[in-house]
């Protein structure tokens, strides 16, 4: 009888732990995201360094290998909320470091939550000046909330074809 009570007590404790643990984990994640400490944020300098690294890699491997090089959240090109994007000069996503499902999509007319055509604006700046910094409103992947973001973009020519390489910084 004592053995059955002990087993039942262990089972109840395990059930309680399996119920409480996910809730506690969720609360920790929510608390972390709500605070979003500064060290969880990429800086403008880090974004520009990532663009340099991505450019050097793409000049070596070419645009066709960009999607694989940027893919996955364990990629060397994912750093907190920083990730690279490579678009052709028409606005088609070649490689997106955070959301690979966007690869192949025409994003030229993509607008932020305020209706700003930020991709079109960045493409125009890159074509005109070789670089562009565009600020817009976007969903922050760390908090799930709309936040101000600045896309740092530059023109890149690979195999004789123009591209826009960009990394964004949440504010």
From TrEMBL:
<keyword id="KW-0472">Membrane</keyword>
<keyword id="KW-1003">Cell membrane</keyword>
<feature type="domain" description="Single Cache">
    <location>
        <begin position="81"/>
        <end position="155"/>
    </location>
</feature>
<keyword id="KW-0812">Transmembrane</keyword>
<protein>
    <recommendedName>
        <fullName>Single Cache domain-containing protein</fullName>
    </recommendedName>
</protein>
<keyword id="KW-1133">Transmembrane helix</keyword>
<dbReference type="InterPro" id="IPR033480">
    <property type="entry name" value="sCache_2"/>
</dbReference>
<dbReference type="GO" id="GO:0005886">
    <property type="term" value="C:plasma membrane"/>
</dbReference>
<dbReference type="Pfam" id="PF17200">
    <property type="entry name" value="sCache_2"/>
</dbReference>
